[in-house]
């Protein structure tokens, strides 16, 4: 069974950093595009970042220059390095998988990890 397990969330002050991890089983992540999607109370779910099977990274405008997505194929894991965090980044962050980055539905989802940015 496909499983995506996120970790690394927590409480951080504005301007701080966190690194989220997405560890996969049941599929090989380097065959797919992998992304991070976030959901906050009272807001629409929105894509944060996507990395292609070839390593090409894409970012939402709101996180461009602050977040970096990467993959470690040997560990079957994708990361999201989040720097200069803002209170508006507070959300549940979900790892998701599909064939290609772009305007297509996500096929698999993790359970999410909570990121809270507060002073």
Name its key features.
single chain, 119 residues, mainly beta, 4-stranded antiparallel sheet
Count, helices: 0
Question: In total, how many beta strands?
Answer: 11
Percent strand: over 45%
Helix content: under 10%
Describe this structure in words.
By secondary structure, this protein is an all-beta fold. It is 0% helix and 50% strand. Strands 2, 4, 5, 6, 9, 10 and 11 form a 7-stranded mixed beta sheet that branches. The protein has a 4-stranded antiparallel beta sheet with strand order 1-3-8-7, with no helix packed on it. A hairpin with a 5-residue loop joins strand 5 (46-51) and strand 6 (57-59). The termini are far apart. The model has no long low-confidence stretch (mean pLDDT 96).
Topology, please?
Elements: E1 3-7, E2 10-12, E3 18-25, E4 33-39, E5 46-51, E6 57-59, E7 67-72, E8 77-82, E9 91-98, E10 108-109, E11 113-117
Parallel strand pairs: 2-11
Antiparallel strand pairs: 1-3, 3-8, 4-5, 4-9, 5-6, 7-8, 9-10, 9-11
Provide a compact summary of the structure.
The chain is an all-beta fold. Helix content is 0%, strand content 50%.
